[in-house]
């Protein structure tokens, strides 16, 4: 299997598991870890974990809110403000998690490189 | 180079973590806030209303049936469990509001929202809110440990709920402001009661009136602020015989007001805080059963101030509106009686000028020096160092204004004497009313009530109706406390209190009804000193005229009266202005507006334009009449609406009518035209901006979230008529906060509604689901369950079970 896909799946799985014990930054921990053990190249270093966590958070928030007619989501999408659109809020949520994960992964990649050097 | 990249990426990682994990200004910590497993997505839930819940220290099982309005019907086996369950359920549905209100009461908002709230916090602390709550707890510890035990049970219930929560379950407001709930305590219930006392008996104009007296002299003052208006339709009917009162009014000493210049005063509660209530006897009722109604007028907020519950044990069964933080039902009924409150404001705040010695450790009193005591208020501020404010206390009360707060006087200050500082036992009144079975029980329960003074309306299945004006009132000498007093003169102290049995009351009056709407409690014949404390003069007359208009009334008539939009105030001035105003100079556009108000029948319905024209016209008029009151750096309050209209009609040539700025000498007639033209100008603008100025749009009633009406959690443009001084007292953000009608069948049959919903969670469909029906004047039948059996009205049942492992 393509390393990108492996990293993608591993990041989601690890994030899922770590979320049981850790606060929101478990996604950063997950991405950092996979970057260390499943190193990727070039822009994939950032984008693979970014997309993985984006998908994870957006889908999870969709599942949580669709069962309740997006009652609160619509309100938060006024607060943020995103024109009251619940799907935009899911996307934003995903991007926030993805961004944190992607940056942590870049750090993980750099860390793995410097460890190799020694 | 490699190390450089490593360091940059490390710093980036730390940076993103910090940005997403920290509250920046008003922006919540966005990672914490938005992540799906502990953030706001977890609040996308409706409440659980089935299953079993384990609660420590319960004595027995408690059954909670929920109906379609999410009203919990609580069946406990004893009172201790009942109040535990009440605490638990209130926390379950209203935790954030429950806690936030006591933070607000205690002057602790800076802890949550930062430095912006510091001034507010200092004001509340200097007002003695925490001090008053301490006194209430001390009173219960000393005299009434039974009530205190129930207050502790309530706290246990709240804490049982808080302890079950994971951070992901915290109400959304905690996540938004990034803080956690803290443990509940009896002191918080005392603070909540102080909050109500402040809201309803925390206003006064003594210092403003002192400025007025100094600037305009006594004759003008008496004309502008008479003790009684030319008409009075008091709460206790005029014909009442007071000859049974054998304790006289305090004798008038030689005392002069202290005519200081006061620059600014502390925030006052909303002037429209008030209410209606009334009850008719069986003889006046279409069905032969007494009927009672109550509608407290308060700020329209979300979560709403009220939470409706049925609270029962095998020995009693009460139903009605509760307030998160206080025990038992506040406005409601049980199997035998119904009760409700309106505010009975009276001058229970007085101000004393105190003079200190050089190091402010003593103050002058009766030609001697008395020690001040010190209360250090330690105010926590989010993200900053604590602010310590030292408040000096005299035997009068806290020195609110001194060199550290809104005053420049180095060695003097103004001390506040407030009935709210005297530890009372208000909670017991409600606990006992919930269990009362007849008039005598009701009278007994009221005796514990100090403040805020309330008009307690009463009706029983036995056929009695009554209304007591209950509070602890100083027996004042004529004129005492109207203005700032010299705090060193013992004769200025409150000398005694009106004996409770001589509080004004009425039982089963001949006219067949009792009513109150924040008007004068009594007329001049009552043997104690009562002066105008900002009394209402319109709603009371509409209500009393209505009940004098025919022989029999039904529940439907009560509903009609609750929703009555008749603007008596406008009807007493508009025809006069139309008659006396010179219309020759009106433009075509102004003439259209003139014709519009001419045909108005004085109903403040949403589709009318008359109410908007009136509102504009009157407010412009009021401002130019009282231009004399716009004095820089001087706290002043202009006269009441009633007196303003009286003066416009009867003293149209008085020098106050003149606009000081202009060279001409204006009279009332000129002001009518001037104000009309100004109003027309604004109305034409509004029409251009918004399309029309129909009352519904013009007023734009809204229910604002407790956090500065955050639009996301508020409801805007609620289509409802009415206004202040109208029986349907709905203004922009204020109005009937709970409408209840109870017919005294056996058991009673009741309807009720409030502008909000039972849930405090903006993610729940029960958050604001009553608002549309409330605006439309509808009511919900209250399902008064007579036994623990779930009826067809019940949609879910939850059992609270004592947890074994404690």
Features of the shown structure:
heterodimer; A: 118 residues; mainly alpha; 5 helices; elongated; B: 806 residues; alpha+beta; Glutamine Phosphoribosylpyrophosphate, subunit 1, domain 1; eleven-stranded mixed beta sheet; seven-stranded antiparallel beta sheet; 29 strands; 33% helix
Class by alpha and beta content of chain B:
alpha+beta
**Straight-line N-to-C gap of chain A:** 29 Å
CATH architecture term of the domain at 214-301 and 331-550 in chain B: 4-Layer Sandwich
DSSP strand content of chain B:
15-25%
Give the oligomeric state.
Answer: heterodimer
The count of helical stretches of chain B stands at: 21
Would you give an account of this structure?
The complex is a heterodimer of chains A (118) and B (806). By secondary structure, chain A is an all-alpha fold. Chain A has one domain (3-117). Chain A is built from five helices and no strands. Chain A has helices at residues 3-18, 26-37, 44-66, 71-79, 86-117. In chain A, helix 1 (3-18) packs across helix 3 (44-66). The longest helix of chain A is centred in the last third of the chain and has 32 residues, at 86-117. The radius of gyration of chain A is 16 Å and the shape is elongated. In chain B, the strands form six sheets. Chain B has an eleven-stranded mixed beta sheet, covered by helices on one side. In chain B, strands 4, 5, 22, 25, 26, 27 and 28 form a seven-stranded antiparallel beta sheet that branches. Among the domains of chain B are: 214-301 and 331-550, Glutamine Phosphoribosylpyrophosphate, subunit 1, domain 1 (4-Layer Sandwich); 568-602 and 609-693. Chain B is α+β, with helices and mostly antiparallel strands and 806 residues long. Chain B is built from 21 helices and 29 strands.
């Amino acid at each position: 299997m393509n390393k990108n896909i492996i990293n993608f799946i591993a990041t989601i799985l690890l994030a899922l598991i770590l979320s049981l014990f850790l606060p929101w930054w478990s996604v950063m921990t997950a991405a950092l870890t996979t970057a260390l053990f499943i190193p990727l190249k070039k822009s994939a270093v950032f984008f693979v974990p970014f997309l993985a966590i984006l998908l994870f958070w957006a889908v999870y928030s969709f599942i949580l809110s669709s069962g309740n007619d997006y009652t609160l989501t619509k309100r938060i999408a006024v607060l943020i403000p995103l024109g009251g659109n619940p799907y935009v809020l899911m996307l934003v949520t995903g991007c926030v998690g993805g961004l944190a994960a992607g940056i942590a992964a870049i750090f993980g990649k750099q860390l793995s490189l410097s460890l190799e050097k020694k | 180079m490699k190390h450089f990249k490593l360091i940059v990426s490390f710093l980036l990682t730390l940076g993103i973590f910090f940005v997403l994990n920290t509250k920046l200004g008003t922006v919540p910590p966005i990672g914490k806030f938005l992540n799906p497993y502990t953030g706001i997505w977890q609040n996308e839930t409706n409440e659980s209303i089935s299953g079993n819940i384990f609660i420590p220290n319960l004595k027995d099982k408690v059954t909670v049936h929920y109906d379609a309005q999410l009203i919990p019907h609580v069946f406990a086996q004893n009172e201790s469990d009942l109040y535990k369950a009440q605490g638990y359920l209130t926390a379950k549905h209203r935790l954030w509001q429950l806690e936030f209100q006591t933070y607000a009461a205690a002057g602790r908002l800076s802890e949550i929202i930062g430095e912006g709230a510091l001034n507010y916090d200092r004001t509340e602390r200097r007002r003695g809110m925490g001090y008053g709550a301490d006194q209430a707890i001390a009173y219960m510890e000393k005299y009434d440990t039974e009530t205190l035990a129930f207050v502790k049970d309530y706290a246990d219930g709240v804490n049982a709920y808080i302890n079950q929560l994971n951070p992901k379950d915290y109400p959304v407001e905690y996540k938004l402001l990034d803080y956690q709930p803290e443990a509940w305590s009896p002191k918080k219930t005392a603070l909540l009661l102080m909050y109500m006392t402040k809201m309803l008996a925390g206003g006064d104009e003594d210092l403003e009136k002192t400025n007025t007296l100094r600037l305009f002299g006594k004759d003008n003052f008496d004309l502008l602020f008479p003790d009684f208006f030319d008409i009075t339709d008091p709460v206790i009917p005029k014909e009442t015989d007071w000859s049974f009162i054998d304790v006289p009014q305090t004798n008038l000493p030689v005392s002069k007001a202290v005519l200081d210049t006061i620059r600014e005063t502390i925030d006052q509660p909303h002037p429209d805080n008030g209410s209606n209530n009334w009850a008719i006897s069986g003889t006046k009722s279409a069905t032969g059963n007494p009927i009672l109604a109550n509608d407290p007028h308060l700020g329209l907020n979300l979560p709403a101030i009220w939470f409706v519950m049925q609270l029962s044990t095998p020995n009693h069964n009460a139903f009605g509106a509760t307030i998160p933080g206080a025990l038992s039902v506040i406005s409601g009924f049980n199997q035998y009686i119904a009760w409700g409150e309106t505010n009975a404001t009276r001058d229970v705040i007085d101000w004393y000028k105190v003079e200190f010695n050089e190091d402010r450790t003593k103050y002058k009193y009766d030609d001697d020096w008395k020690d001040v005591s010190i209360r250090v208020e330690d105010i926590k501020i989010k993200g900053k160092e604590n602010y310590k404010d030292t408040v000096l206390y005299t035997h009068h009360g806290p020195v609110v204004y001194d060199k550290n707060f809104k005053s420049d006087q180095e060695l003097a200050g103004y001390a506040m004497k407030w009935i709210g500082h005297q530890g009372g036992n208000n909670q017991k009144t409600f606990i006992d009313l919930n269990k009362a079975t007849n008039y005598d029980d009701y009278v007994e329960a009221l005796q514990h009530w100090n403040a805020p003074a309330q008009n307690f309306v009463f009706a029983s299945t036995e056929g009695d109706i009554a209304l007591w004006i209950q509070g602890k009132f100083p027996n004042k000498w004529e004129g005492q406390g109207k203005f700032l007093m010299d705090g060193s003169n013992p004769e200025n102290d409150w000398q005694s209190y009106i004996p409770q049995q001589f509080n004004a009351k009425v039982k089963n009056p001949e006219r067949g009804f009792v009513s109150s709407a924040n008007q004068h409690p009594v007329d001049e014949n009552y043997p104690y000193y009562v002066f105008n404390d900002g009394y209402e003069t319109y709603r009371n007359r509409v209500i009393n005229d209505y009940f004098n208009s025919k022989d029999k009334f039904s529940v439907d008539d009560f509903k009609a009266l609750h929703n009555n939009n008749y603007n008596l105030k406008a009807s007493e001035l508009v025809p006069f202005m139309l008659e006396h105003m010179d219309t020759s100079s009106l433009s075509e556009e102004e003439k259209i507006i003139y014709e519009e108000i001419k045909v108005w029948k004085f109903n403040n319905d949403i589709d009318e334009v008359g109410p908007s024209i009136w509102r504009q016209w009157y407010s412009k008029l009021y401002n130019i009449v009282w231009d004399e009151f716009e004095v820089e750096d001087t706290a002043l309050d202009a006269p009441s609406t009633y007196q303003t209209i009286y003066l416009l009609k009867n003293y149209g040539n008085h020098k106050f009518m003149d606009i000081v700025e202009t060279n001409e000498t204006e009279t009332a007639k000129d002001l009518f035209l001037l104000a009309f033209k100004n109003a027309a100008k604004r109305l034409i603008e509004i029409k251009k901006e918004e399309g029309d100025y129909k009352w519904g749009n013009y007023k734009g009633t809204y229910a604002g979230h407790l956090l500065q009406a955050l639009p996301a959690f508020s409801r805007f443009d609620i289509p409802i008529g009415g206004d202040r001084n109208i029986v349907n007292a709905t203004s922009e953000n204020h109005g009937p906060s709970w409408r209840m009608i109870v017919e005294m069948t056996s058991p009673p049959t009741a309807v009720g509604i409030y502008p909000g919903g039972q849930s405090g969670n903006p993610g729940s469909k029960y958050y604001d689901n009553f608002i549309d029906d409330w605006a439309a004047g509808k009511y919900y039948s209250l399902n008064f369950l007579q036994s623990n059996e779930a009826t067809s009205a019940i949609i879910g049942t939850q059992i609270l079970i004592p947890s074994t492992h404690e």
